[in-house]
Amino acid sequence: MSESDFPYLHGFSEVEQDRLYRQGRFAEHSIYQDVDFSRAKKILEVGCGVGAQTEILLRRFPELFVHGVDRSDNQLAAARKHLAIQPQFQNRYTIEKMDATRLEFSEGEFDGAFLCWILEHVSEPSQVLAEVRRVLRPGGRVFVTEVMNSTFFLDPYSPNTWRYWMAYNDYQLDHSGDPFVGVKLGNLLLQQGFREIQTNVKTWHFDNRTPGRRKEVIAFWTELILSAADQLLRDKYVDQGTIDGMKIELDRVAFDKDAVFYFSFMQASARV
Questions:
Q1: For residue range 197-247, what is the model confidence (pLDDT) as tens digits?
Q2: Concatenated DSSP letters for the chain?
Q3: CATH for 3-271?
């Protein structure tokens, strides 16, 4: 299988890989507020990609050993390179190519599991979670962070941005992903027999109360959604006029003294 067999909206370029590292650091506080692996020794990271979250897990939990798996050769190569230059993580992780729907691990092999921004890109999220449950020991805990793209709101009204955002979500749906999977995590975990399931809505809501942070988030969001522009244009989900119009709108919103940005995502935790 080549990278072209994976319909990943953002692509696998070095520019995109660098963006993923920045994204990991940018969203770290929101994602890890409630993540606790302090009692775990060995965890599985499904969809480790370029190692952006692997780095954060190793840094935040210094006693942890992380097994990262992903199906992309390009992303795995980037992860190995990125982690190798950080000697403090030596001998604390492995990075392997693996299909998350058929994990090559024994039952009960891990104390915990971590999934972040991965189920939105897979066609069989239930099978992924079934495999995660299989390889967790009794009492093992999983944390899953996922998107709820229907929550995105931007003021002033930006029609090109909305058209682009709908095309962005349509692309994922048409390619067997799910840009709304966050709200389904409770059901998905329950169906696979997990217990002690908890869901928590994480919200980014910025207005005049925090103008500096609002501007940072809009810049982050602009980079995120524009990273999909080439693919959406190539597959005729949007036209160049929509992209150009969106860029003008996002620049205008970034400097609007009364702008509002809102987006929510979901984090779930559960035990075996």
A1: 999 999 999 999 999 999 999 999 999 999 999 999 999 999 999 999 999
A2: --GGGS--TT---HHHHHHHHHHHHHTHHHHHTT---TT-SEEEEET-TTSHHHHHHHHH-TT-EEEEEES-HHHHHHHHHHHHT-GGGTTSEEEEE--TTS--S-TT-EEEEEEES-GGG-S-HHHHHHHHHHHEEEEEEEEEEEE-GGG-EEES--HHHHHHHHHHHHHHHHTT--TTGGGGHHHHHHHTT-EEEEEEEEEEEESTTSHHHHHHHHHHHHHHHHTTHHHHHHTTSS-HHHHHHHHHHHHHHHT-TT-EEEEEEEEEEEE-
A3: 3.40.50.150
Asked if 92 contacts 58 with a C-beta cutoff of 8 angstroms, the reply is yes
Given CA atoms 33, 61, 39, 44 in this order, what sign does their dihedral have? positive
Residue pair 121/149 in contact by the 8 Å Cβ criterion: no
**Could you tell me the residue ranges of all domains in the chain?**
3-271
Residue 21: CA count within 13 A, CB half-sphere:
14
For the question of whether the overall pTM of this predicted structure is more than 0.85, the answer is yes
pLDDT tens for 19-58 read 899 999 999 999 999 999 999 999 999 999 999 999 999 9
Output the 3-class SS for 16-39: HHHHHHHHHHHCHHHHHCCCCCCC
